[in-house]
């Protein structure tokens, strides 16, 4: 029912523990896929010795690794998890159970216990990115960048992967949310990393940039309108400037005043229209869910 994908690069210190923990929850080695990014420390050899299916990726980065692993999955579900032993394999059955019970297309392992093991800068970056994502996509999710999540593979086939590196998680979540699929979260534990840390602070800026790109992909009209709403800022600043000189110094700036009114009103209208288009997009998603639910009920009644 489930295959585990482990993207790795130089994880010789942790990969044995990860694979052994996965086997302890009843998943055989042939359903453990290790996609190695040209490790120089023998990670791939250790995984092979333990019976896992090992593939060497042609490209580089985590996104390329996950995409390659998904192409080799033959089960209904795939669990993606890091190879550094930070995510306990004991939660895999719970992820599958949640997907089966609630019909989730995607189940995120939300890191609720052990968050102190995430650096304070990374924690703040995660919070900002989660808020940015929730604001635009309307998804009340707490950990879209988790390194452990379950995917209903059949519901991901229509995805055109464009992002690279550590942005793969944000891309997968945005696809499921935008397609009206059910995205669930399961509280899990986060453990101390074994081996050298790979996620740097600057990766957070790249992920934030890619979320903006995803916003453009899935709802370009609202993206343009909300971007245009930034005219409010210079419009209001210029308006305050003109008002100060008019009321306190008795100096009239007619052209600047007209420019301030034009920018402020344009920005305000763009903001209102941008919010409306976001709500229309969310309404579209709800209608899609309702139609699918009705189709399922009709199919079951026959």
UniProtKB/TrEMBL annotation:
Which controlled-vocabulary keywords does the entry list?
Membrane, Transferase, Transmembrane, Transmembrane helix
Gene3D superfamilies recorded: Spore Coat Polysaccharide Biosynthesis Protein SpsA, Chain A
Q: Which residues form the signal peptide?
A: none
Q: Taxonomically, which superkingdom?
A: Archaea
Mark the transmembrane ranges: 223-247, 253-280
Q: Where is the Glycosyltransferase 2-like domain?
A: 3-126
UniProt GO molecular function: transferase activity
The record's listing under InterPro entries reads:
Glyco_trans_2-like, Glycosyltransferase_2, Nucleotide-diphossugar_trans
The molecule here is called: Glycosyltransferase
Tell me what organism the protein belongs to: Fervidicoccus fontis
């Amino acid at each position: 029912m489930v295959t585990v994908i482990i993207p790795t690069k130089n994880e010789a210190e942790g990969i044995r523990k990860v694979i052994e923990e996965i086997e302890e929850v009843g998943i055989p080695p042939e359903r453990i896929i290790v996609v190695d990014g040209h490790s120089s420390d023998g990670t791939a050899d250790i995984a092979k010795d333990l019976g896992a299916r090992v593939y060497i990726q042609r490209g580089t980065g985590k996104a390329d690794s996950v995409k390659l692993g998904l192409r080799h999955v033959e089960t209904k579900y795939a669990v993606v998890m890091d190879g550094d032993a930070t995510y306990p394999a004991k939660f895999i059955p719970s992820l599958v159970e949640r997907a089966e019970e609630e019909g989730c297309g995607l189940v995120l392992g939300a890191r609720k216990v052990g968050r102190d093991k995430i650096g304070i800068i990374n924690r703040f970056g995660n919070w900002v990115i989660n808020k940015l994502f929730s604001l635009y996509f309307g998804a009340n999710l707490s950990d879209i960048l988790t390194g452990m999540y379950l995917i209903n593979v059949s519901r991901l086939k229509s995805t055109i992967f464009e992002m690279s590196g550590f942005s793969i998680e944000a891309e997968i979540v945005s696809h499921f949310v935008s397609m009206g699929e059910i995205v669930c979260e399961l509280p899990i534990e986060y453990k101390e990393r074994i081996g050298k840390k790979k996620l740097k602070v600057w990766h957070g800026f790249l992920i934030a940039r890619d979320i903006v790109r995803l916003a453009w992909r899935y709802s370009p009209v609202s993206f343009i309108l909300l971007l245009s709403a930034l005219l409010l800022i210079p419009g209001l600043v210029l308006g305050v400037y003109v008002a100060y000189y008019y009321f306190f110094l008795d100096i009239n700036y007619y052209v600047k005043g007209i420019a301030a009114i034009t920018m402020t009103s344009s920005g305000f209208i763009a903001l209102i229209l941008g919010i409306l288009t976001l709500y229309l997009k969310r309404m579209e998603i709800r209608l899609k869910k309702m139609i699918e639910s009705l189709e399922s009920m009709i199919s079951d009644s026959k």
